[in-house]
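Summary for the lay section of the report: proteins are chains of building blocks that fold into shapes. Here we show the chain for Sel1 repeat family protein and then a coded description of the shape we predicted for it.
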Amino acid sequence: MRRLPAALATLAISLPLALPLATGPLTVQAATAPATVTLDQALATYERGDLRGAERQFQQLSRQGLALGDYNLAMMHIRGEVPKPDAHLARRLLERAAERGLVRAALSLGEFHEQGIGGKPDLVQAQAWYLKAAEHGSVDAQVAVATAFYLGRGAEKDFPLAAQWYREAAKAGDVGAQYLIASMYERGLGVEKDLRLARYWYDAAARNGDDAAPFKRQAIDAELAASAGTI
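The coded shape description reads as follows.
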């Protein structure tokens, strides 16, 4: 089988701190004196290397109810950038961020459980969180869900569902998913065999830079031409 898309190899600890999703400042009160902090300011504090200051500011944003405050604070715990990293607290923060509607947090929870951060890997929980993120448009999660169904990891092996989710990710431009759904159409795996659709997706993958896709497209072209009696 071809190498799976790189999304599955991404650890939660490699995810960047989230960027602001809303315009306008978020004002909160410091514990000791009136003060304001925005997500932009907290991110700038982090980028300056003031990790203690960033931790305090993300804590303030988290207490205020900002999902990105929860998420970024969780990432600092996972990365070991706070004095007392706590994987269980990180999980709770990510769960709260996901409950507050942050799709990236659901994706990170899938990675958290898949990698077994702070405990043992739990592929069933990972698939559950990936599915939540996939249903809300996360392309990385769609690839992860598809691959779980393809391999039977954390879910029963289900080629039609694998094809469904690879197709969704392929439509969004994921080159690995484009190659894999092309392969499934070529072989009739989980879908009705369709060389024209296989050719379409190999072509998309080739245009997006996949090294192997041009050769597969050429082979499909030859097969289609032969079946049409043109060579």
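Put simply, here is one thing we learned. The chain has eleven helices and no strands.
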